[in-house]
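I have been asked to look over a protein record a colleague put together. Alongside the sequence sits a line of tokens, each denoting a local backbone shape. Please read both lines and tell me whether the tokens look consistent with the sequence. Take the sequence as given and treat only the tokens as open to question. I have pasted the whole thing underneath without changing anything:
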Amino acid sequence: MLAREVAPLGIGVTVVEPGGVRTDWAGASMRTAAIRPEYAGTVGRTAAVHASGATGAGDPAKVARLVLDLVDLDEPPLRLLVGVDAHAYATAAGRSLLAEDERWRALSESTTADDATPEHLDPLGHRG
């Protein structure tokens, strides 16, 4: 991971994952090609929001200030979700992924070798 590679050099790394910010990104500068009917509920829905003129809840000045403030933190986060929508989308995606992983856990673990050691079964050292 980049953050670990450059840490000995005194370089910090933060991945900033912004949500919608009130800029012209989806305004006059945005052009969307015709959307196939199969994508109406996904890409089409997002394109319609952009076309409606709706902008994100993020204040560009506040986002810029936050990024500058990150530089001064002694221990900045490795990853930072920026904005209420970024947090909502990312946490929903994480919960969905976890639920899917748990749903199929038995199938995932069915490939374990019969002679697997305790170290194999607990690669992160959490059990015991």
